[in-house]
């Protein structure tokens, strides 16, 4: 039973006392083998694959921008827009995969919000720095690179490994 601000989770959920006790008695922790089998049945996608996909899409968008416009500045602008998504995404993935973020559920939840805030702040900072870092910035190409790279999250969600049926 988990204590939550002096009361139990069951009372916070307004469960009848008998149902709460039955739920506690029915709970059985998984063995090492059962946990391993559960992980094999429900594989997860590494965040590093998503970050790598974002860098790959960024390169592709930059090459397409260069091919369509014939201007290298459009390619650099599109690539910078992709980097404004991929670099903060890499920071976020690194933060979530750190040992500190996996101490317990509370630090994992707190770490998620902290690293998400860092990701957003670094993206906004990169966008504000864009005119100084990319001479003759093509704003349209940069926004296209940014938006297309953001869509990698949705593609990764659709292409995640499928659950295996036991």
From TrEMBL:
Location of the protein in the cell: Cell membrane
Membrane association type: Multi-pass membrane protein
Xref: Pfam families: ATP-synt_I
Residue intervals passing through the bilayer: 46-66, 73-93, 105-130, 137-156
Record lineage: Bacteria, Pseudomonadati, Pseudomonadota, Betaproteobacteria, Burkholderiales
Taxonomic source organism: Polaromonas eurypsychrophila
Protein name: ATP synthase subunit I
UniProt entry tagged with the keyword Coiled coil: no
Signal peptide (from-to): 1-22
Gene Ontology annotations for the cellular component aspect, listed alphabetically: plasma membrane
Keyword Transmembrane helix attributed: yes
Keywords on record: Cell membrane, Membrane, Signal, Transmembrane, Transmembrane helix
């Amino acid at each position: 039973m988990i204590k939550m601000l002096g009361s139990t989770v069951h009372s916070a959920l307004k469960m009848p006392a008998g149902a709460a006790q039955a739920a506690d008695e029915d709970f059985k922790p998984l063995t090492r083998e059962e946990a391993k089998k559960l992980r094999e049945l429900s594989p997860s996608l590494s965040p590093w694959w998503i970050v790598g996909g974002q860098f790959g899409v960024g390169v592709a968008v930059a090459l397409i921008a260069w091919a369509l416009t014939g201007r290298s500045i459009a390619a650099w602008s599109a690539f910078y827009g992709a980097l404004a998504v991929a670099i903060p995404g890499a920071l976020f993935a690194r933060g979530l995969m750190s040992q500190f973020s996996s101490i317990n559920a509370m630090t994992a939840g707190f770490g998620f919000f902290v690293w998400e805030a860092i990701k957003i702040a670094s993206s906004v900072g990169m966008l504000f720095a864009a005119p100084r870092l990319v001479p003759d910035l093509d704003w349209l190409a940069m926004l296209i690179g940014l938006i297309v790279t953001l869509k990698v999250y949705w593609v990764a969600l659709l292409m995640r490994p499928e659950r295996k049926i036991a």
